[in-house]
Design a protein that fits this description.
This protein has helices spanning 4-63, 70-81, 136-139, 209-217, 231-239, 261-272, 282-288, and strands at residues 86-87, 92-93, 97-102, 121-131, 143-156, 159-160, 186-190, 247-248, 296-302, 314-322, 336-342, 344-345, 358-363. By secondary structure, the chain is of the alpha+beta class.
Length: 365
Amino acid sequence: MINKRTRGRCRQEGRRRGFVLIVAAVACVILIGCVGMAVDLGRLYLIKSEAQNYVDSAALRAAVLLDGTSSGLMQAEYSAAQSRDRYDMASRPFTNTVLKVSPSVDGPWYSAAGAPLKSRFVRVSTSVNAPMYFIQAVTLKSTGTVTAVGTGAQVEKRVFTEGLFPFSPFAHNANPPHYGLTPGVDYTMRWPAKPKLGGKSVCPGDQFQEVIDTAEAAGGEERGFIEETSASRIRDTIINDFQTVTRTVGELVDLTGGAKQTMLEALETRIEQDTDAFSTSYSDYVKTGIGNGRRLVGMPINDGGTPRGVNHRIVSIGLFFIKPTGYYGSGGGQGWCAEYVGAYVEGSNRKGVEDSGAWVVRLVR
């Protein structure tokens, strides 16, 4: 028979087991809730990261399209609207995106249709309602709002370790922003051996005796090329945007001269790399709209030297448009022309917002 003491011990043990079960059940509920909240919060964090990457990349894509025209503004807005980026592990499209532009990083901000043409800052914002599966049991909310803002712009660049074309045209005066050059006019990037006023070998924009005297002062062999003159280096600098020397606005540039056949071969290759190798002017190139930008090059513009012909100093970086395939000849008596466009934007297939100078697209906020 079970005595009273034994029965009491059994009842006590039963109560303990019941309590442990209750505690375990409650702990399981709390644990599941914590795991669920961690899953939902992790989901929010992931979507926040996806949204930020989206607005940052959209701002950069839009900023590179700005060129100081209403068409550039509208293309920038269109680029954001047509983005195929998605969030929630690429399962949902971004649908609530707003693009604004401004001439200043601090605003005011405008829609593309009403913005000043000189706007070079782009702000892209988005918000998404991320689905919540566990937190709603506590908060009664089935979604969580995630917002992101990214700001990109064309920012000034003065130092180049790569990307500049290996020729240096002459400035015509010391006055910014264009230093005497006129957009739409052809200027000399490689001078002929014996330039003459009125001669066909001198490009139209350089048909001034003072400019010709500047070219002559540098010496017959120094015709505008600014890199090493081995065949391999010529090809690398013309075709592959390679630089052997860092170029900085305000510092000196050496003219290294020469008129080697390799230059022509490399130049023709560069032209043929463009998906529009035949437009004869930058305006036609823009209208055609099929070019990939390989015929648009940034070149250091130098002051002609102090005294003239020596100590050439870079006053600006300008965007130039290379002539179509078949235009350039190999003879040492021929000058090579390129159309001056204006502001150079590194990596872009169009000119920049500002009138002149060198720019690069970066995130600024």
